[in-house]
Amino acid sequence: MIEMRHVRVTFNAGTPLENPALRGIDLDIPAGQFLTVIGGNGAGKSTLLNALSGEINVSAGRISFDGQDVTRWPVAQRARWVARVFQDPLAGTCAELTIEENLALAAARGQWRSLRPALTAAARATFRDSLARLGLGLENRLQDRMSLLSGGQRQALSLLMATLQPMKILLLDEHTAALDPKTAAFVLELTRRIVAERQLTALMVTHSLRHALDVGTRTLMLHQGRIVLDIAGAERARLDVPDLLRLFEVAQGEPVTDDELLLG
Amino acid sequence: MSLIALLGALEIGLVFALVALGVYLSFRVLQFPDLTVDGSFPLGAAVAAILIVNHVNPWLATATAALAGALAGLTTAWLNLRLGILNLLASILTMIALYSINLRIMGRPNVALLGENTVLSPLQDLALPVYVTTPLAFALAVLLIKALLDRFLNSELGLALRATGANPRMARAQGIHTGQATYLGMALSNALVALAGALFAQSQGSADVTMGVGVIVVGLAAVIGGEALLNPRTVAWATAACVFGSLLYRLIVALALNADFLGLQAQDLNLITAALVAAALVLPRLRAGKTP
Description:
The complex is a heterodimer. Chain A is of the alpha/beta class.
């Protein structure tokens, strides 16, 4: 169980640019739940995710993982329990390193890093197997540099990298937003498959109402730093995109402009 | 150019190969532009020289010199990470501070090592002349250190260092404490440079407070030149390129200074160096078919 209690994040506090990004978030994420998070620009979706990853220090409140208070843990320390895939395909991998080196880095996420060789024959064999299951033909390109891969390949690999070590939560930060529709669909399907197979607890931020309903088991809607909608189960199963859009407009108190959310 | 001059150039080239490996660690692996080198090279020379003239075991003196270099690197990293001073500026501050510290260590601007017992003294008992055995001994040392460095950079910890330089945000998300990785890398880098300084002082017979001037540029010339020519894709090739670049740099300098028709003299060294670095920086772009 991951708990957020009265979490507030205020950027530039005490200045004319003061920006309350999260205004009191209370959220329980039970193990095995796949949460999708939607909201307009500036609603606090990314801030929520970054608060969980440790990349942003919360201004107030408490975050705990299975009872352990991690509020003040830096990113590197939280990595033991948090895996993430970034929105930018370039951000989640090291372009100059090879595919197998990137995998080796991720295979030691949150572990003590010793002077043992990072790549062994056994590790390579495991990587090759995992890569083969992606179905992208990457299993024969272990020694290629990451920079040679397309955005979609990189995101697929980032997903694989995230799952090489156990975690308490997988954070997906609009990880299909930078991809073309076909590749995005592939990466999303892969996400669904991996989360289901491994029974992961996951939180996916998305701009797409369609994606928010199509994957996951629970959907949150954020508006101005607050959770304005939290649906799961049968209630959620009944909803379609137009219903969600209507709820969104009610929550927001004004019509949604087209570019704010991808409706498709 | 005579054989002795050629071997002399190789000898210096091998010592500076260690500088190049250190510069590769900071500039390339960590992507930390580190000018501490200009201070840690004479620091290594000063520490080794003063210990040797005080009859400390020369091996212990050389190891202590490397340790002193590591401390210099840690200082720069601390100024940057803890005090938030821009990396380049932090390294310049350490470099300037080291000038005074080196004078304090030696107590005078230079310390002569002629006739002292150094790590190179055993070579005098061999059948071959010293100008042959010294570069051979240095070649063995450089090969050993290169192999150790390759091994390190391909270890779990070494990979963490490389990720820290290449993509610190990703590195942290993988649980790498990028600050600690930077401290470690900077310490190693400057330890290598100080070791080079210690060996240089012992092979040249003296330590001098001014011997650090321009060391960083020579190191960069070796790193960038080697990369431009070998275009390395792996760690082992990248470190080989550093060694190769350093040797080549010394040979070019020796040839340029020996070619009478060019009319170049020793004081033109820095000009030649700058021209070589500029050429090495432009070469990869020319090869890629783009006009600079």
